[in-house]
Structures are given as structure tokens and as C-alpha cells.
């Protein structure tokens, strides 16, 4: 600080100079603190003038260090002599400098037609002028800039129309952005812009003072008067930008909504605060148009809380969105002259609401009711996915499905009403989407539950309202309701929606034991040919439908059809993944976090699951009833080509046979394996006991009938197994003996033996007079001949494997003709080996694969062919 004391008085005493120094330092600290406060607070403006302070203190005697400070006059005269002086600008001056710099950048952009930079600078300019305005008039330089920019924009657009010249993408986007922002922003300053255009020089030279800038206190909440506010906010009012209290009036609703819509999706946006503001706007809304706009914006803002990541929407906000969407549909039902449709023009005037013009029937509000319904449904599904299904919380959350179904039903009635007026041009797809959502909530439920849902939905609407698609009279029968909804989608939709409707109807029919109709629809739909081209959710629905058809066939006693239908899902070992009931973690699989997140999002809620243990039990039981007789047949006839029906069952059986000690059965697999061992040994009663002791059968409807059916099937297959095993040891065998042995009717025994003879599975003849079976003795093969046949089979299999391997390796080098010719020869050879064996029970079915791949009909097709 030595340079500040160059002009000190040498004649003054040391004590007096010290007093002056200390007193001056205190004054200097106060001045510095005051300047620091002015610079740190953006909203505080320094309006004091340096000239007034210098004039008032010109004649006063300066004390302490203040006498060394330069005033205005001395700074002008001695500016060249003083070094290191800096001029401190007020916050207002700094903002004016920034405004002038932005205007200069816009003018430079106009000279080179750089509309991209102009658009960016215009956004910056609009933000700056708000800070300088604060309730008063806008600066004149700003008015001049936007007026000239609007004229320049109009000239550019006029030139484009007269002589079209293609702009680059950046310039075109910038021009469109400037056009929209000028159209929107100039409304607030239209009076000043008109005054500028009327007399530009007079407007700029006028001495009209702008409104004084209020000094803003930095408080977040300030107390307000009024009983209503005290009840809601405890005596506090919401404070907006600049410290001003937000006034919620019917006239300011649209401005608040526009501000909220513009801030959606931006960083640091307080969504909960926006929701509170819109709830207050809904309270002050008067006209139907205001209420519709506020409700739509409020529901959209609540959905933003559940967007992004795997987090579901908060429960209280979901319930609030459901209530507000129901209120919106009720309001639209009451106010028929207001319609919410897609593609309507946006209303830009924030000062007044649209009114019906002469010759106008409706006030159109842009929006999509079906999108709100779908999002509400998806959020409920996400919530159910994140809740533990074995808790009471899941049951409580599942009760909300009833209210959601009511919303879907009201949405369907609303779109039916809109479709009656052809002038509205409501797309058919919107109605199809609502019907599909309604179908998704009823196709997997029993008829009694569907009936309750329908009754509750009709109670929510007036008695005078009826549906053209699903009248009240057809809502009592669940099967008729499903049929009507599906037939409507068959006629008025295509692609994925039509395929999903077909699968939903097949699933419902199979669930209610209408097997033959479900089978015929599955075969005639030809979904197996193009299901692989559909989305993953449709493929999951296809797999679920296929499983339900197989279970229906089992309940009907069609063991062969059930096993072949379930082979696709259960034989793959990926039941959880294919049915979207869990994510299977494989040992060497490398799954990205994004793929893992998508897999979890596809999982079905627990109440839609198919019991996997029951599914495995049905599959293994059917495989046992088919594989044990086949093993007996191939064991007694070495010349018969070995055939495997279920590789999964064979692996389990081989593993069970390798066990040195087998204890009592503990789970479903153990029961089936023990029953298989007993059935192969001819102990059909013991096998029946093992199968009946499986507790999972209690989950199926009509458990007693299922057990009786299984007992009959075990008796028949036990008879077949016995004949295959001991046929070489008999010359003749009485039917009565077999009937008493397996406790079957003699006619049933005769029918089983006749079928085996006709399929060339048993070399015998049936004497109906004496009711005996006469076995034909063929040429008994020696052990050497049996081994030779086995070696021949293995050699043939080895040759086929080598040829396939060679074909894969040389596939890139050989031409298409040779590959085609090789496949033809290979097919002829394979056909020659397989022909003439297996009879009708082999079926000649190609293996089907799950997940929307090849579905050739398999057992279903064989059953149709007889």
C-alpha cells in the first residue's frame, strides 16, 4: 500500500497520522464490502451516481486515506498520471453491454445470412432482456433489433418464394426457429414495435423513461393473506423467477401452461413443483377448454416421473393420473363440442381461448387419449414387475387393474362416439389400439372374472350410453365378448394387431377346454410362417398360446397331441425365457446391461404366469406314456430303427437308471421317473400310484377327472408295453387274460391290439371267435445278426454326419448347383432309410422350435389328418 501514501503531509504528527490512517482504513473496508455486495447479488441494481457524490463532497475536508482517493474531476485531469485505476460497473451496465454485444452478433449474422447463429443469439437475447425488463418496458435497442430482424426474415422468405434456392440443413432449421420465436416473442412488445416502425428516429430519440426497476428481495416464500392460501400452503405463496408471487387466475392459465411445456425435458426442472402449479391451475380453471388443457398437461407431467430407467411411476401419482384421466373422459363425454384428436392444430394465443365460429361444430384440442391409456397400462405393468408377488402389496396393487379397465372401457366409448362423425377423420388405428388393450386384460382370465369386470365397467357409465361394438347384452358372456372383440379386429386391422387378436382368442378357447376349435384356428391362421418377423412380445404371446393349447389337449386325454405341442417349449430347456416368466442366466453368456434391462422389461406380471412345475409335470407324464412302450418295442425288435420322442425325458431316465440307490420320490421328476420304472416292469398299479401322488395336479380344474384319465392311459400303455416285451414268448394269448391282468374291458383290449396290428407294430393276428391273439413267429435273429444290424445303423449315421460336415466346410467353394444336387441325394437317401417304419404313430413330424420359428402343425396336423 506504499503507493497510496506518496502525497502525505510531512508536517503532521505521527499520532495524528496514525489516527487518520486507522479511521480511513475502516471507511475503506465499508466501501469494499458495499461493492462486493453489489457485484455478488445479480438482482440488486446500483442506481447511485458517482457525479452526485463527488459534487456533494467536493468542498469537504478529506480525512485519512480518503484524501488520497481520486474524485471524478481529478481522475479526468490526472488520468495519464495515475496507474492501476479500474472503473467498477454496475450490474445494470454489465447487462446492457452484454445486450449490445448480442445485438451486434445478430447483425453480423444478418450480413452473411447465417440463420443458425442468429437463432442461437436470439435465444440468448430474449433471456437477457427479461433480466433488464423486470416489469418495465423493454430497452429501445432490443425493440429496434427484433423489428429489423423480423423485416429481414420476411424479405428472406419472400425471396425464397420468388426464386427458390435450396438452403443447407443448418440454415433452414435456423430460419424456421427464428420465425417461430419472433412470432411468439414479439406479441409481448407489439405496441413498442409498432411505435418504432411508425417513427424510428423519434422512438429512439424520445426521452420517455422506462419503468423503474423494483428492488427484489431474495426470498423463496413470502406470506400472503387469504384463508384459502393459508389452508393449502400454510400462509405461503409460490414465488416465481425474479421474486414475484405467481398469480393463478383463469386469464393466466395458458401462459403458465406454455412455460411448463417449454421446460419439460430440460435439466434441473422441478417436476413435482410443476405438478403442484398445475393442480392449482386446475382449481381456478373455469371453461371446459381450460380444464381439458390443464388435465392433459397434468397427466403428461405425471408420466414424466416414471420416464427413464427401470423405475416405475410412484403409486400416488399413478392413482392421481388415473383419476385425472377419468375426469378428462367424463368432461369430454359431457362437452360434446370439445374433442381431443390427433393432428389438430395447436392454439398459440395465450391471452384468449378458442371459441366456436359460425359453421364450426367442434373445438379441436391436439392430443391422443389412446396414448394416455397405453402409458397408464404400461406403468401399472412396470409397477407389478417391481413388486414381490408373494406379498400383500402385490395383491393391493393388482386391485388397480379394475379402475384401469374402466378407463380403457370409457376410452373405447369415446372413440366410438368420435367415429360416428366422419368430419372428424379419427383414424381407425386409434380405436383398434384401445380394443387391443381391452382384449389384453381379459383373454387370460376365467369367464367369471371377465364377467365381473364388465359389470363394474357398465356401472360407471350412464344407462343411456351403449356401445356399438360390444353392446350391454353381449357383455354377460365372456366367450361372446372375446369373440366380438376379436372379430372386429379381424375385419378392421392387419399386421401385428390382427395376429395378436387371433392368438388371444386361441388362448381363451384353450383355457376354457375348447381344444378342437383352438387347434383349427391355430392351423388355419398360418402364424407359424411369419411369427418370427413380429416383435418379441407377440412371439411371447405365441409361445404362451402354444403351451395353453398343449395343456388343453392333455386335459382332453390327447396325450400324443399334448406331448408334440409342448415339445417346442419344454424340450428346449428355456421355458422361463420363452414364456417371459424369468431371465435364465447361462454359464458363458455375455449380456450387455442394455439387453438385460430389456429382458427384464419384457417379463410378464406374476398373475399372468403359467405354472412351470405343472407344465413340466404334464410334459414328462406325456413323454412317459409314449416313450416306455417305444423303448419296449425297440428292445424286443432290434431291426426296428431306434426313434427318440423326447430327448429331455430320455436324459432324465438314463440319469435315474445310473443311480445306485434311489430313495422315495421327493419332487415331480422323481415321481415320474419312479412311475416310468414301474410301468416298464409291468407294474401299472404302482405307476398309477406314483403319478396320482403328485400334488401339482390339484392346481388343475377337475382334478378327479384328470386322475381318472391318467389311470386309463397308464392301463392302456401298460398293456402295450407288456405285449411288446413278452410277445416273443407267446404263441397265443387270451384276451380275457389280458383284460383281468390290466383291469380293462375286453372290447378295449381288442381295440388296442387291433390298432397295434394295423400299424404294423405287432406281428400277430386276432381271432375274434376264440378271442385270442395268435402271434406270428418271424425269423429269429442270432446275436451276430443283431450286432451286424446295429453296426450298420451306426455306420449309416456316421456317413450322414461326415457328409453334413463336409457340406458345411465346402459350402463357400462349391457352386449352387452342386449344393442343390447334394441336398437332393441326401434327402433321397434319408427318405429311403426312414420310409416304412414307425407306422402312423411316428407321424413323420419335423421338430418345431419355440419363439416364433417354424410351426408345421406337428401333432395338431396329424390329429386333423386322422
TrEMBL record:
It is found in: Cytoplasm. Residues 825-842 have a biased composition (Gly residues). Component of the eukaryotic translation initiation factor 3 (eIF-3) complex, which is involved in protein synthesis of a specialized repertoire of mRNAs and, together with other initiation factors, stimulates binding of mRNA and methionyl-tRNAi to the 40S ribosome. The eIF-3 complex specifically targets and initiates translation of a subset of mRNAs involved in cell proliferation. Its main location: cytoplasm. It holds the Pfam family PCI. GO terms for biological process: formation of cytoplasmic translation initiation complex. The lineage of its organism: Eukaryota, Fungi, Dikarya, Ascomycota, Pezizomycotina. GO terms for molecular function: RNA binding; translation initiation factor activity; translation initiation factor binding. The gene is NIP1. The keyword Protein biosynthesis applies. It comes from the Eukaryota. Belongs to the eIF-3 subunit C family. The keyword S-adenosyl-L-methionine does not apply. This is Eukaryotic translation initiation factor 3 subunit C. PROSITE patterns: PCI. Residues 16-31, 38-57, 73-82 have a biased composition (Acidic residues). GO terms for cellular component: eukaryotic 43S preinitiation complex; eukaryotic 48S preinitiation complex; eukaryotic translation initiation factor 3 complex.
Amino acid at each position: 500500500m506504499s503507493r497510496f501514501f506518496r502525497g502525505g503531509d510531512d508536517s503532521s504528527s505521527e499520532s495524528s497520522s496514525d489516527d487518520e490512517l486507522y479511521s480511513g482504513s475502516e471507511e475503506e473496508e465499508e466501501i469494499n464490502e458495499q461493492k462486493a455486495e453489489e457485484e455478488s447479488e445479480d438482482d440488486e441494481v446500483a442506481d447511485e451516481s458517482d457525479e452526485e457524490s463527488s459534487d456533494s463532497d467536493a468542498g469537504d475536508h478529506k480525512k485519512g486515506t480518503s484524501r488520497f482517493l481520486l474524485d471524478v474531476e481529478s481522475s479526468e485531469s490526472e488520468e495519464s498520471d495515475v496507474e492501476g485505476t479500474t472503473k467498477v460497473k454496475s450490474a445494470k451496465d454489465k447487462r446492457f453491454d452484454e445486450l449490445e454485444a448480442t445485438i451486434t452478433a445478430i447483425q453480423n449474422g444478418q450480413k452473411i445470412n447465417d440463420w443458425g447463429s442468429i437463432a442461437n443469439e436470439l435465444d440468448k437475447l430474449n433471456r437477457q432482456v427479461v433480466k433488464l425488463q423486470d416489469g418495465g418496458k423493454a430497452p429501445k435497442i432490443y425493440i429496434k433489433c427484433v423489428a429489423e430482424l423480423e423485416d429481414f426474415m420476411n424479405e428472406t422468405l419472400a425471396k425464397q418464394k420468388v426464386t427458390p434456392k435450396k438452403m443447407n440443413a443448418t440454415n433452414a432449421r435456423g430460419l424456421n426457429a427464428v420465425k417461430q420465436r419472433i412470432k411468439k416473442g414479439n406479441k409481448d412488445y407489439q405496441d413498442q414495435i409498432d411505435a418504432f416502425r411508425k417513427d424510428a428516429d423519434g422512438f429512439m430519440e424520445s426521452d420517455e423513461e422506462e419503468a423503474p426497476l423494483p428492488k427484489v428481495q431474495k426470498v423463496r416464500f413470502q406470506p400472503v393473506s387469504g384463508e384459502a392460501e393459508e389452508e393449502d400452503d400454510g400462509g405461503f405463496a409460490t414465488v416465481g423467477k425474479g421474486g414475484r408471487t405467481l398469480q393463478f387466475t383463469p386469464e393466466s392459465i395458458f401462459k403458465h401452461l406454455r412455460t411448463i411445456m417449454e421446460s419439460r425435458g430440460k435439466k434441473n426442472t422441478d417436476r413435482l413443483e410443476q405438478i403442484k402449479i398445475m393442480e392449482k391451475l386446475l382449481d381456478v380453471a373455469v371453461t371446459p377448454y381450460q380444464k381439458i388443457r390443464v388435465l392433459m398437461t397434468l397427466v403428461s407431467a405425471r408420466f414424466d416421473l416414471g420416464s427413464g430407467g427401470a423405475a416405475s411411476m410412484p403409486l400416488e401419482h399413478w392413482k392421481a393420473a388415473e383419476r385425472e384421466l377419468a375426469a378428462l373422459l367424463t368432461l369430454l363425454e359431457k362437452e360434446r363440442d370439445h374433442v381431443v384428436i390427433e393432428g389438430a392444430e395447436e392454439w398459440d394465443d395465450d391471452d384468449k381461448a378458442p371459441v366456436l365460429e359460425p359453421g364450426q361444430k367442434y373445438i379441436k384440442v391436439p392430443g391422443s387419449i389412446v396414448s394416455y391409456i397405453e402409458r397408464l397400462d404400461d406403468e401399472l405393468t412396470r409397477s407389478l414387475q417391481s413388486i414381490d408377488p408373494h406379498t400383500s402389496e402385490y395383491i393391493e396393487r393388482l386391485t388397480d387393474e379394475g379402475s384401469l379397465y374402466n378407463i380403457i372401457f370409457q376410452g373405447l366409448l369415446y372413440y366410438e362416439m368420435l367415429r360416428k362423425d366422419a368430419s372428424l377423420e379419427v383414424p381407425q388405428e386409434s380405436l383398434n389400439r384401445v380394443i387391443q388393450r381391452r382384449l389384453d386384460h381379459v383373454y387370460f382370465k376365467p369367464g367369471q372374472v371377465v364377467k365381473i369386470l364388465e359389470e363394474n365397467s357398465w356401472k360407471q357409465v350412464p344407462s343411456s350410453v351403449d356401445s356399438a361394438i360390444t353392446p350391454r347384452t353381449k357383455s354377460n358372456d365372456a366367450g361372446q365378448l372375446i369373440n366380438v372383440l376379436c372379430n372386429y379386429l379381424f375385419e378392421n386391422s392387419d399386421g401385428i394387431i390382427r395376429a395378436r387378436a387371433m392368438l388371444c382368442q386361441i388362448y381363451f378357447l384353450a383355457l376354457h377346454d375348447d381344444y378342437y376349435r383352438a387347434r383349427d384356428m391355430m392351423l388355419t391362421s398360418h402364424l407359424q410362417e411369419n411369427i418370427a418377423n413380429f416383435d418379441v412380445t407377440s412371439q411371447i404371446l405365441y409361445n404362451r398360446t402354444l403351451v395353453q393349447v398343449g395343456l388343453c389337449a392333455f386335459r382332453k386325454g390327447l396325450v400324443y397331441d399334448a406331448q408334440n405341442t409342448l415339445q417346442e417349449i419344454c424340450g428346449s430347456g428355456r421355458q422361463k425365457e420363452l414364456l417371459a416368466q424369468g431371465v435364465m442366466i447361462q454359464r458363458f453368456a455375455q449380456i450387455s446391461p442394455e439387453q438385460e434391462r430389456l429382458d427384464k422389461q419384457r417379463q410378464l406380471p406374476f398373475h399372468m404366469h403359467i405354472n412351470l412345475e405343472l407344465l413340466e409335470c404334464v410334459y414328462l407324464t406325456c413323454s412317459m406314456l409314449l416313450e416306455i412302450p417305444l423303448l419296449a418295442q425297440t428292445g424286443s425288435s432290434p431291426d426296428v430303427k431306434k426313434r427318440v420322442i423326447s430327448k429331455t425325458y430320455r436324459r432324465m431316465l438314463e440319469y435315474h437308471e445310473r443311480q445306485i440307490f434311489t430313495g422315495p420320490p421327493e419332487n415331480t421328476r422323481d415321481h415320474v421317473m419312479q412311475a416310468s420304472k414301474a410301468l416298464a416292469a409291468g407294474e401299472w398299479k404302482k405307476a398309477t400310484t406314483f403319478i396320482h401322488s403328485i400334488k401339482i395336479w390339484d392346481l388343475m380344474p377337475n382334478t378327479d377327472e384328470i386322475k381318472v384319465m391318467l389311470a386309463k392311459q397308464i392301463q392302456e400303455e401298460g398293456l402295450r408295453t407288456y405285449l411288446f416285451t413278452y410277445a416273443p414268448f407267446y404263441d397265443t394269448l387270451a384276451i380275457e387274460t389280458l383284460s383281468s391282468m390290466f383291469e380293462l374291458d375286453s372290447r378295449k383290449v381288442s381295440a388296442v391290439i387291433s390298432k397295434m396290428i394295423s400299424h404294423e407294430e405287432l406281428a400277430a393276428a386276432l381271432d375274434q371267435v376264440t378271442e385270442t391273439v395268435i402271434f406270428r413267429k418271424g425269423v429269429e435273429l442270432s446275436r451276430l445278426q443283431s450286432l451286424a444290424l446295429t453296426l450298420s445303423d451306426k455306420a449309416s449315421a456316421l456317413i450322414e454326419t461326415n457328409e453334413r460336415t463336409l457340406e458345411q466346410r465346402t459350402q463357400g467353394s462349391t457352386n449352387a448347383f452342386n449344393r442343390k444336387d447334394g441336398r437332393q441325394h441326401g434327402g433321397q437317401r434319408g427318405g429311403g432309410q426312414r420310409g416304412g417304419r414307425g407306422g402312423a404313430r411316428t407321424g413323420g413330424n419335423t421338430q418345431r422350435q419355440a419363439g416364433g420359428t417354424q410351426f408345421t402343425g406337428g401333432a395338431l396336423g396329424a390329429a386333423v389328418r386322422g
